[in-house]
Amino acid sequence: MTTTRSSGHLELCGIGKRYGKVSAVDDVSLRIAPGEFLTLLGASGSGKTTTLKIIAGFVEPDSGEVRLHDRAITRLPAHRRNIGIVFQNYALFPHLTAAENIAFPLRVRGLGKAERHRRVEAALATVRLEGMGGRYPRQLSGGQQQRVALARAIVFEPQVLLMDEPMGALDKKLREALQLEIMRIHRELGITICYVTHDQEEALVMSDRIAIYDHGRIQQVGTAEELYERPESVFVAQFMGESNIFHGTFDGAGRESRLVAPGRPPIVVSPNGSRGPGDGTSAAVVVRPERIRVTRDGPAGDPGQAPGHNILTGVVQDVIYLGSGRRYLVALPDGSTYQARVGAAEADPDIGRGDRVRLSWDCADAILLEAPAREVAL
Fold it and tell me: Rounded to the nearest 5°, which phi and psi values hold at 289?
């Protein structure tokens, strides 16, 4: 199956939607490049699905504009937008065969029988369901039904494909297999995809870029690496993977910048570019668990600071065997608990519950963020 590669882009300009006093989507602006796979990621109720429905034409925004290939489509009905969509529940007609389901949007568009047959066969081949067009939905597995829904969404060669948590009802193994299939189809067709999910791992694996939603707003847009390595807020840092968050006050007056807090040794940090917090303001340091080393503590006393490193001491609360390594939960003297994830080759198998250990990490592996008092952790 061949699809004309998009030559334009999809753009949201200040989109807003309210339901009573609730702002479901709040001033969202976003540009999706031609052929890009962009994921809207967020918790339930964050506004991502409402955004998708606005793009599809199922929900009319209260403000803003939707543009496709530099053409305003905000007031166009859904069937005139040339946008395909795959729903979470697939929405297949039970009384129609797989081929008839796939052909449905072609019949609506008035294509002749021969052309419908050609396109349906090509779509079945694209989703690797050759020879199964005569089966009814009840005769197909969940994964096969999902593929039929995908074939139906692409058979009329849409300019944009929308996918609303299409794998939410599938088991983990099948979901992972279909992720790879969707990525393959995306590469082959070059179609622009806007994908909705609440699954961080799914977003990391599949997306060119990710837009993280919270309370109807986009908190940050970037590649998986950018969001994980360079989050712009504590919310994003916690939402994208596991994080250790150290809160305190930023002190940049001395020879080195530090995060200070009562009952804990200062943490040496380096401001991230020009957006670092001001002296005396609330701040946070994010350290990913895989960046922390765990070693047995030496004689009692202050371990000091190794050049370019931070070192904190604590007591192991739990050790979780992961196969590829171990996860350590360590309580510090101030009562806070942090975690480290150490690979099998580096982990000390003799460290167990109740042992005193040192947590250490390179200062360069810390992420310094502003953390105003109003920011609520997940």
Answer: -55, -35
